[in-house]
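Q: What changes when D-malate is included in the input?
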Amino acid sequence: MFKINEDYLKLQGSYLFSMIGKKVAAYQKENPDKSIIRLGIGDVTQPLAPVIIEALHRAVDEMGSADTFHGYAPDLGYEFLRNAIADNDYKARGCDISADEVFVSDGAKCDSGNIQEIFAKDNKIAVCDPVYPVYIDTNVMAGRTGTFNKETETWSDVIYMPCTGENDFKPELPKKQPDLIYLCFPNNPTGGTITKDELQEWVDYANKVGAVIIYDAAYEAYITESNVPHTIYECDGARTCAIELRSFSKNAGFTGLRLGAAIVPKDLKSGDVSLHSLWARRHGTKYNGAPYIVQKAGEAVYSEAGKAQLKEQVAYYMNNATTIYNGLKDAGFEVSGGINAPYIWLKTPGNLSSWEFFDLLLSKAGVVGTPGSGFGPSGEGYFRLTAFGTHENTVKAIAKIRENI
Ligand code: MLT
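A: The predicted holo structure follows.
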């Protein structure tokens, strides 16, 4: 008789965004005449930039001709894309990352979930609280998190690093020693970030205690302040302690196309074993690569026209972020984020719980957001709104919140 992976039974509820989707669907069924504006999941709304569409069309045509057709992609991604990533995201910033340290993937969500597979089960993970739920849930599935305490809503074997208004949403170095540290800056969900000097402290700490930092840089394109690092490899010593995850979803609108990359430096080792070789083995065995046409679209992101068009797209979303931030602040809400990130993090008014505020916002203003408590216990009493809506809807949503809440 087969047995299941019982660690899956430990998972709490359903995936946060699936749960919100179900709640909204139920509300719509009961209130078919009410319109709603979705500022919940961080999914983009602007069409792909023209330069990307052109690259896709060209690549599709290539697939239709025997002499330019492409079958399986190389295990670790096409050279043209790995070079473009290494040159533009790293070398251009003075960071020592080479193309053969870039592993092309179908997105940062998958990489952030899969990367834990190359680490031993008894590694201790440290996460910010609140946190992108994929980091925790995938470690639950792997049996690494211990038991769940329903009262504190925490896992016994996870080290939580609270990020609240009291510490300006910046994690402090953990008191217990972790083996794997998940950091995401600019942060999802709080929209906060840390300076290069602060990130350097994390790198020094990880090197000192022999931990690996899994650094999720998915929101890097939204950085506006000069002292905020665009990659962890701006810090000295990061090559021996950090894996970085990159996404094309937020900077180039690829949420539906799927493309990302993991950077695993060859200097990152456990004894004689390089994590690069483990990840290469895993990638080669379990993955057949992002499609050729999508990798060609990814290459177009780094063309001069691509850079110019995507700068405009990011500015469009950041204009939404400013609209939300200023609109709510003027209305008396306590807000943060939105300066180096497309997320605005607000304190729920009147001591409402995050889910109470979710219900209130949906029923009174017709606006969907994400309850802070869905990201972890320190998110309770907070709420996230995304700047990825259309500008028209963003303006409408803020007006409705101001009128009705
Ligand atoms: C979010 O809303 O937190 C993100 O869109 C989720 C993701 O990128 O997978």
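Observations recorded in class: The chain has twelve helices and 17 strands.
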